[in-house]
Amino acid sequence: MSTPNLYLPLIDLSSTDRASVAQSIRQACMDHGFFYVINHGIDDVTVSSLFSESKKFFDLPLSEKMKLERSKDLRGYTPPYAETLDPSSKFKGDLKESFDIGPSNDSLNQWPSKESLPAWRVTLESYREKIMNVGFRLISLIALALNLDENYFTKIGALDSIMGFLRLLHYPGEIPESDKGKYGTSAHSDFVMITLLVSDGVPGLQICREKDRSPQLWEDVHHVEGALIVNIGDMMERWTNCTFRSTLHRVVAVGQDRYSAAFFLDPNYECVVECLETCCSETAPPRFTPIKCGDYLKERIRLAYSQ
Length: 307
What we know:
The protein is built from 7 helices and 15 strands. With 307 residues, it is α+β, with helices and mostly antiparallel strands. It has an 8-stranded mixed sheet with strand order 2-3-11-8-13-6-5-4. Strand 2 (10-12), helix 1 and strand 3 form a beta-alpha-beta unit. Helix 1 (18-31) crosses helix 4 (120-145) and helix 2 crosses helix 4. The longest helix is centred in the middle third of the chain and has 26 residues, at 120-145.
């Protein structure tokens, strides 16, 4: 059951009224867990170059891509069917293929050769730096939205030496008959603080705002040209005691190739995620036990790849 073209709340980062922007973000995170961001500072040329280089890589033969297969350090290429984000899915393996890039300064990233893709690394590193800066701006606004000091997450060390993975994604347009009914990405919520997504405009992204509703209602997210899509992740939901929702989402096959890039802003792995004082009370006690970010992520990643 699907409702076409859901228009998410629109957040304008060029506004000088930070209190008003923070309040709009608060409402969006409570109602949807998703929102658009415009005037974020990443120009169209940068995004166009990102998708051009992404397509060049995914167009390579599978044998070439597998030379950069995803490592234990979570960098590199993941082929179709290798990941199942919805453990309850009757289908084992999502249709998408992806490529993960971490921080540039830790030497763990894998890169295509300069001979085959000469501009690939510089393009991806440049975009990652820009999208991470947008993420930091949003985190300070989210702190304000939670009635905290805007530098709260910096002060507790959440943003120290973050991993901040950039994931390139390709969803195939043509799929064999045996794969009909499978999802590009099966239903899941993101593990991190927030995710910042840019796509090429091809539809397919759906969200389910009420994850416990039966039957679930899935809504198609409308594409807004030039906007980023931002969603709250599970760790931010834990921090806020479910004040902000980490919303289920998935990507359905639409008969067209679809390209997107997701930046996952996760806290420092030693940071403890525990209920914020502004999000609990005697009548609303903490729902989750405190946990280190790194421990939480390891378990979620293990479950995603165990099948």
